[in-house]
Known about the structure:
The chain is mostly helical. It is 67% helix and 0% strand.
Amino acid sequence: MSLIKKYLPAALALYCAVIFLSSIPFKFGNAEETQVIFGKLNDWAASFGADGIFAQTGLFSQYVIGSAEVLASLMLLLGILPRFTRVQGFGALLGLAVMTGAIFFHTMTPLGIDPNNDGGGLFYAACGVWISCLLLVWIRRSFLKDGLMKIGCALFGEPHIHVQSVKADETVEPTA
């Protein structure tokens, strides 16, 4: 069991990073397959007035999604090193967010599970990465909790909890 605990996070991180990084040449290289996917999504979004959101300069363009995948991969891979284990959970959270979007758009829009006639390989890879990222989030949950608490304190300050100490023989008068 200790071997699984030791090596499972690294194996999951490598799997996710390989999937993410293998898609980068398609996204950043303006491949036809990528144009088909983001074109279908943009056409779908245009049908309810959000034209351009998936276009090349849109909020959810192939470049934005690809950049998020690169960042997630870097954090996942960096987290394999013992000194940087704490960043792996954040890479998994980012990967989980990206893959949640991918799975949603493959299943809930006209894009479908097999937009490029590859037998659904892209969709099934997204599902595998989603599960792997979810497992990593669970494995690294204590690092995530600590990190999110530090971010919260940096943004909003230390929480102020006022505790009134009471000696055993004293009573405390409630204040209105």
